[in-house]
Amino acid sequence: MEIDGSAIRANYRAVRGLLKTGCRIIAVVKADAYGLGLGPVAGILASEGCSHFAVATVAEAVELRCHGIQGEILVLGSIPERLAEEVPRWNLCATCGDLSLAGALSRAGLSVGRPARLHVKVDTGLGRIGFSPEEVLPAVKAIRSMKGAEISGIYTHFATADEPNLDYARWQGERFLEALRALEEEGIRIPLRHACNSAAILNCPGLHLDAVRCGIFLYGLPSGHASRPIGLSRVFEVKSELVAVRDLPARHPVGYGLRYVTRGATRIGVIPVGFNDGFLRGTKNPEVLIRGVRVPVVGSVCMDQMMVDLAGVPDARKQDEVVLIGRQGGEEITALEYAARIDSIPAQAMTLFSRRVARVYRGGEDHA
Prior knowledge:
Elements: E1 2-4, H1 5-16, E2 24-28, H2 30-34, H3 38-47, E3 52-55, H4 58-66, E4 72-75, H5 86-89, E5 93-96, H6 99-112, E6 116-121, H7 133-144, E7 149-155, H8 167-185, E8 192-194, H9 198-203, E9 211-214, E10 236-241, E11 244-248, E12 266-271, E13 287-290, E14 293-298, E15 306-309, E16 321-328, E17 331-333, H10 335-341, H11 346-351, E18 360-362
Parallel strand pairs: 1-18, 2-3, 2-9, 3-4, 4-5, 5-6, 6-7, 7-8
Antiparallel strand pairs: 1-10, 10-16, 11-12, 12-15, 13-14, 13-16, 14-15, 16-17
Helix pairs in contact: 7-8
């Protein structure tokens, strides 16, 4: 996997250009920065001026700290109460959607000797974690009374901001604003208010508030339906090579289960990539690029290898470059295309590629 640091920088600047002055970008680097490498990607963004990051788990947050990231780190998932002390110990921000966790964070802050900071999560209609809008005011008052806990943010998350019909997203946004107004009527102003994910940055600009959470856009990919264009640069490509070229006779099986049998004399190429690397066995009509030509994958994808029919590139040789995602010559296989072939979304297509696939960084040499 080749990762272009300069493209990450360009995408960060593109998102920055959509926001009002003072609105921060919380860079979502969970899931190993969507498979691109947590430490290197966060380092590139930090050197570009990003000071706020979001991850899914305490372990990811601690890994960020170990990579030297000094900015604010928000853990988006609801953390187990047994890990509450890690929040003040590593100077993190926890997502809090229930008073039991708030109590655990309060006790953790008192134990460590530093306030456990948290962002109040408001469930405006996604149905995962969080206080209902009606519960926010009493919950915030209760948390503010707890010694050892400190509210530094409040946020919600949209269910349909990436879809053409934005009525539900707008309804969610209004519920969130109503909760904020209820707090302000009581003289409570929480420092960092945020609602927009990548799709909502484009589709719900009136809800940018104090910060936005941006993930997939930073990595050069769209998020569902966009109400207006945004210029994104391609960040990554996935490449391999031919490790064997074989001439097989007619009626020769290829791969497990005998699901493919040659019709005539066929030149078969072998690529050292399999489903353990992230190229799924159930991919529909999979293709790769060799010498700028689309070449079909034949037979079942194995754990560590797969085979291709080289009829379209009869001069192919061992060590020829193979592109799984990316451009070669005049052809391109995009992450969007691969995602469609596995009936999924680009974010999953990115995160499928395992750590066995080496990450090579270019154009971001000054990353941490």
